Amino acid sequence: MTSTQYHTTEEIRSAVHTAVQRQIVTDMHTHLFAPEFGSLNLFGIDALLGYHYLISELFRVTRLVYDDFWAMDGLAQADLIWRELFVRRAPISEATQGVVRVLTALGLDATAPDLTEAREYLRAQDPMEYANRILDMAGVDVAVMTNDPFDPEESRLWMSGIEINPRYKAALRLDQLLIHWPSACATLRSAGYDVEVGMTGATCDEVRRFLSSWTERMQPLYMAVSLPASFTYPDDTPITRLLSEAVLPACLEYDLPLALMIGVRRQVNPALRLAGDGVARADVTAVEHLASDYPDNRFLLTMLSRENQHELCVTCRKFNNILPFGCWWFLNNPSIIEEITRERLEMLGATFVAQHSDARVLDQLLYKWPVSREIIGRALAETYVGLHHAGRPVTDSDIEADVHRLLRGNFRDWTNFA
Ligand code: FIX
Ligand code: ZN
Question: Would residue 205 count as lying in a domain?
């Protein structure tokens, strides 16, 4: 097949825009659950309004006492958030605009005075059919979940041999194991593993046995951990030993990448619960040490602080066993996505995963992906316009190959996910 060559900057911009809109995405990090997980599968208006991004915005505009909010049931919380953030004022923040986009995409009235219509719509949906429909509408073929083997509700479902919709894949999440070792150790002991909190004896082998058993059960695409901004490696904490003697060898054995998500400051304001986490700049040298000590391991890497993005790009230029991904959480805003994507394109070409949604509620795919597609498309278009000005003809196959790499191919190659 012959490829089309573009001759003007307008043609290039329009070709990139079209390619990004058409590209099917593999959403490599979400907090979604397949419908078979029952109540863990969040969808619909009340879940959308209960998103922790909106809860912190509610407290920007009211003097409500935190405990009074938490004492309300979910429906009353959603009613209050709707009234305060969508009716009494224009929903201009990124998270509130997102809800407006979702309602509009579903054909619902985003200016409604209350939630009656949106709740009626929700009641009419079948969870299985709805999941496939929203994934299709968002142009997402597969959503990767976040699966915590220490969560009693979730692990019970996995143990029951649950069969899940193949459009959802697992990621084995290790926060409990790595960050809360003493309590994880107690849980492992009660499950029959011969582990010691002081990490003596068979502890690391037993942790590997635990990882093997969950890898075989969940068939994850990668293992993952979200680490605090204070994370250092190597040091004399259990994390260093668990990483080097259990997690990284297990990743090698199963040929899985390890995703490191670095930069959170958990519970800066505990009264806000899930909405109470913050951010700080982290030390990228920890990543460099890991990448250099474990050259045969593959890492997926995202950092939460805007201030870490440039140095992470530099680190990725030094270590080709790191694949940077996404504009995470507080960075998932148009202005910052544009900045980070341009910086990565300039420093790394198309060797990164442009975005993940981090959706917690299925319907959020209907805003997070359209926003990201738009901005990533703009950044890539300017990159190709630059190439055109430099004197290299630009073709549709160049553009389509890069769009595919950024939104689907790189992640799939890194995880051997055909
Ligand atoms: O650790 C994580 O995976 C974070 O993305 C979440 O825990 C965070 O609460 C979130 O939802 C960010 O978008
Ligand atoms: Zn997340």
Answer: yes
